[in-house]
Structures are given as structure tokens and as C-alpha cells.
Fold this sequence. Notes:
Elements: H1 2-41, E1 47-53, E2 59-67, E3 71-77, E4 99-105, E5 110-115, E6 124-129, E7 137-140, E8 151-157, E9 162-167, E10 176-180, E11 188-190, E12 201-206, E13 212-218, E14 221-227, E15 234-240, E16 257-261, E17 269-273, E18 281-287, E19 295-303, E20 306-310
Antiparallel strand pairs: 1-2, 1-20, 2-3, 4-5, 5-6, 6-7, 8-9, 9-10, 10-11, 12-13, 13-14, 14-15, 16-17, 17-18, 18-19
Signal peptide: 1-25
Organism: Limnovirga soli
Protein name: Lipoprotein
Amino acid sequence: MKKNTFSLPILVVALLVMISCQKQNQQISQRAISVTESNAAVACQATYFQLILDPGGISYMFKTLGSPTTGGPLLSGIIGSYGDNVIREAGTTIPITFVTGIAYEPISGIVTATTSPASNYPNRILRFPISNPSIATHVAMVSSCGILLNVSDIEYNITNGRYYAINRGSTAFNNRIVVINPGAPTNVVCMPATVPVARQLRGLTFGCNGQGYVMQMNGPNGKIISFNLATGALSLPACNYTGIIAPGAPAASFPEMGLHFDCSCSGLFITGNFDPTSGASLLTDGMASCIGAPSYASLTGVIKPTVDFARP
């Protein structure tokens, strides 16, 4: 009989332990579901490099994670040998002003950049490792057709290994898309097609399949236009970008901006405008309606005045 007096309490304790374990397992399972749903909500983040200028034209390199659609963004300065992210001439402390475009070649890890006629190193092609923007070497631009040089928005096409850029001009002869050959004596190659001066091109990028796109600005709005990689000819009609790019720009003006197509995550265009007056710019991502399903999202004050983007 004594053995039986202990059996009921032992059974009760066992049942209580079993119920407690079931509750703990259920809570753990619920937490796991919650974490899975959270991870699914942020499946990826856009990744790209960003060129930012201050009002005096000093040029800075950033790596950016995120966009209005993919979360963030988080901007990290690419810190060079002087403890900051300023683009400088190698062997000096001199910042290079008014850098107009950046392009990244992933196999070599080298950034190729361009400067404007207003730079303290005017009309140059720069080269520096992505890890250190403060050791840039540079050569003078030499064109194949005698154009008045004003090169911007350089980008590397991973499908054919060529660098493309915009040469801005007030005449059609000077207004065109060019190919940049960083190591050649004639390093700016004129493509045969010219661009009407009414089309003020302010951004150049490539889709995931290598298709080239440029952005034509008009006040706060823009149009996306594809172009021929062999001739530089624009493939009209132009596609209206779905939302505002440069909110402070007056009508009929042609503001600076950066254009990027995000192949790392969203499959959308990303834009950032150059707004040194307020010190902050609008970051957007979206799709032009005649290229894909129209979309648009924006964030204000999350980036600094942006001149160009580059694919990582």
C-alpha cells in the first residue's frame, strides 16, 4: 500500500512537467514563425556605391545599403588613407573637386571616375582602388573626335566590359554618349549618334542584361530612355519615370542627379538628386511604366547631394 501512496503525486508532477514543456515548445515555435516572417519581410537590400559632393565641390565616396522599397538606407563612408572618404590625388592631401561620375569594375576592384571642366583637375579620368579613394591617379581626357569635353555619369557594363558616359554639350555635335577607355592614349571615344540638345541627359545606368538607359531631366521630373550600345542612339519614345526626382527644381531646369538600376535586390531604378542648398536630397526607387510595372517610392533627407551611383 505504501507504494501506491506515492504513485498519484508522481503522476501529477509528470503531467505538470509535460504541460509546461508543451507550452515552452509552442512559444518557441511561435517565436520562430515570427522571426521567419520578419526575415521574409526584408528579403534583401539594394547595394550600390554613391558619389556625393559638398557645396564647394569636394567629392566623397560612400557604400549604400537600402532604398525606399528595400529598407534603410545605411550610408557608410569608404575610408581611405587619410581617415576620411574624400577623393584625393595620390601622394598629396589635395581633394579632387567636382568629380562627375564613378564606375566600379568588380574583378579588379578599381573605380574609374571623371571630373568636370570646373574641377581643380579638369577633364581627367581618375583611377583608384575601391578600398582607398585618397590615392587617385589621373590622366587627361583625349577624345577621338574633337568634342568639347564635359563628361559625367560614367558606368561600367559588366556584359561587354566597356565604360560608357555622357558628354554634355550645347550643340548636338558635343552632346552624345561616349565610350571611356581608361588605359588608351585616346581615352574618350565618340559614338556616332549625337543627342538633340533639347534632351538634357543627367544619368546613365545599365539593366541586369546590359541594356543601357539614360535619364532626361525636366524640372523635378525625368524620363527614362534606352540607348544603343554600338551607336549611342537613343531609342525613343522616352518613358516617364513614375514620380518626382528633384522636388526643389524649377520647371524647365535640368538638375543634377544620380541614376542606378538595382540588380542586387529590387529590379528597380534608383535615383538621388543633387541638392547642395538644403544639404539633403531625395532618394527614390521605381519603374517607368513603358519598361515594367509602374511603381514609385521615396525618402527625403536620408542621403546627401548625389552626383552619381555605381553598381558594386
